[in-house]
Structures are given as structure tokens and as C-alpha cells.
Amino acid sequence: MTTYIVLMNWTEQGAKTVRDSPKRLDAARKQLGEMGGSFKSFYLTMGEFDMVAVVEAPDDAVLARFALMLGSGGSVRTRTLKAFPEFAYREIISSLG
């Protein structure tokens, strides 16, 4: 499984219906699970982004589909980062020679 960091901001629509946000999170968690992925952690944040999730998915295409589905709901905009765990980081750096 590949790890991704999903940075999210509420749209105007999402802010107006913020009380429904926990239900949307539950639906997103279920949706990603049905796609073979999972939420590892979720945070409400202060600063540039409203929410941050750490998720796993079988591949980039699954996560791209998931992010598009989130965005098409109209309540959030996302930015996604592919995350490399420490062991991969060390392998990548050591491969530099």
C-alpha cells in the first residue's frame, strides 16, 4: 500500500454545511475502504488547510479517483502528496551513490 497525505479546504458550500462534515468524513472513509484503501489518521487543522488526512491506497490511480470523487461532492478541495516512509527515503538517498 502507498501512503498519501491529503490536504483539504472547505469550499463555500462545505463551510455552509460544516455541521454535516462528520457524515461526509464517514462516507469518504467507507468509499476509500471499498476502493481497497483506508484512512490512517484524520485531523482538523488550523492554518493554511482546514483538514489533513493520512490515507493508504493500492496505487496512484485509486487515490486519484478518490480525490476526484471528494472534489466532485463540492464540499472540499484537495491537494495530495505521495508519502515515502523512512525506509524508502533511506533507500532513495543511498541510491544516489
Short description:
With 97 residues, the protein is of the alpha+beta class. The protein has four helices and four strands; from the N terminus they run βααββαβα.
Task: Give the radius of gyration.
Answer: 15 Å
**What percentage of residues falls in helices of 4 or more residues?**
40-55%
Mean pLDDT: 97
Uncertain spans? none
Structural class label: alpha+beta
Largest sheet entry: 4 strands, antiparallel
| H/I helix tally | 4
Strand % is 25-35%
Which strands sit side by side, in order, in the main sheet? 2-3-1-4
**Gross geometry:** elongated
**Secondary-structure element order, as H and E?**
EHHEEHEH
Oligomer: single chain
Write the layout of secondary structure elements.
Blueprint: E1 2-10, H1 12-16, H2 21-34, E2 38-44, E3 51-57, H3 60-72, E4 76-83, H4 86-94
Antiparallel strand pairs: 1-3, 1-4, 2-3
